[in-house]
Amino acid sequence: MKAAAVWGVRAAAALLTAVALGHTLWHGLVEPGTALAFGALIALGELARRDPGGEGSDTAPHRTAPHRTAPLGSAAALAYALLGEAAGLPTHHGVLQIVAVVVAAALVGIVPHIARGRGQAFDHLARRVLTTAFAAVCFQPLYNSGRLAERVGQGPGLVLFLLFMLGLTALCDAVLAAALAAAGSGGPYGPLLRAELRAQLGIGSAICATGVVMALGVAGAGLWAVPVFSVPLLLTQLSFHRIAAIRTTYRQTITSLARATEIAGYTRPGHARRVAALSCAVGRELGLSERELTVLEYAALMHDIGQLSLVDPVPAGATAELPAAQARRIAELGGEVARQTGVPAEVAVVVELQADPYRDQPVAARIVRTVNAYEDLLGGARHPSGSLEALERLRLGTGHDYQPEVVECLARVLARGGRGGVVPAQVG
Q1: Can you give the pLDDT at residue 278?
Q2: Mean pLDDT of the chain
Q3: Mean pLDDT of the region 21-29
Q4: Which of 173, 186, 318, 399 has the fewest CB atoms within 10 Å distance of its CB?
Q5: Under 8 Å CB-to-CB from 416, ≥6 apart: which residues?
């Protein structure tokens, strides 16, 4: 079902692109100067787009959505779709030319990303085509026919209408993004849609506001408004890239620190990364926010760091069945080590509460504890029967040790082929 939705999105975008390019090539560009100015800005925004595919460890709970890494291109596309006048003169470019210019400019900008083997580039382009076409279809016919001016005028009413239109466009983009992400990751659609809607309140708001201001600025001042109003968003994009680079380095540092227990022989190779990846999948299933997923990832990577204080390693690093006092001591020492690394305080709390009853734990600690126990119980048995047995043992401990909802979410993730093991579809 999800695959069918994705192919439907791609097919609709491809059909619209073919019609728009054919129409524009046949009839030629209307107002080529305006088209060139906005096309150049869209291409520049795409060229400056940061590649989200290499955001550090493979346990990263999320990947930055392409529309949020290319805010300048998104704002320029929306501004062109909502452009009714240029320097006081009416424009006549139409919906199909808008789509054609956006596609051509975006293709110029994403060629380097495609050359680097980024598989998401075409899905990103499909979203851009459909969201821009949606905004243009809702605005251009109304404006060009004069009905919009009759009903809302050219003052505050027009601004409010444009903001309303961009709100609907942002909702359309979030729906498409969640559908594509759900098909790509196999995760549930609802939590992914909520995450996309939350993201729209951040950089999405800046994109919409810049699109409106740019369209209104060009209407009054002409094409000089394009570079002037794009500067603030370009600076925002550069700042975003810098912050993303810092986060990537931070994540890599924590991942390297988490490997200390493996190098010292306290845990099995890859244990921390497997627990982090599966914990993030369960967190997405439960609808955790982007920040909560980041805290969850860091805590999962560092959950066994307290074992470095032991004189004799725990056999295979399995802490799930240790005596309560020893497990609590390891957890408390792990929390203290986590605090010394400078991670957010929530991460240290999650680590040091690993041995407490689940009712006394925050959600992230419940997830890490459950997934760590599953990984310990699974051991080296990476096959369906071992996964089923490990899940059944977790279910038997839901009265005190593991939250039932987390265990069932883990079962659903594994049933879809999530990391950490393979479970037949009937499980959970």
Answers
A1: 92
A2: 80
A3: 93
A4: 399
A5: 186, 187
Amino acid at 95: V
Triad 331, 337, 338: Cα angle to 5°: 85
Pairing relation of β-strands 85-86 and 89-90? antiparallel
Q: Give this prediction's pTM.
A: 0.73
pLDDT category of residue 187 using cuts at 50, 70 and 90: low
Q: How far apart are CA 301 and CA 351, in angstroms?
A: 10
* Predicted pLDDT of residue 197: 83
Q: What angle do CA 251, 124, 219 make, to 5 degrees?
A: 115
Residue 12: pLDDT over 50:
yes
Tokens of 130: 């459909």
- How far apart are alpha carbons 279 and 288 in whole angstroms? 11
The C-alpha atoms of residue 126 and residue 123 are separated, in whole angstroms, by 5
Q: Which residues of 379-389 are buried (b: 16+ CB within 10 A; e: fewer)?
A: eeeeeeebbbe
How far is the C-alpha of 114 from the C-alpha of 112, rounded, in Å? 5
Cα–Cα distance, 354 to 227 (Å, whole number): 53
Angle, vertex CA 297, rays to CA 1 and CA 397, nearest 5: 80
d(CA 170, CA 191): 17
Cβ atoms of 338 and 304 within 8 Å: the answer is no
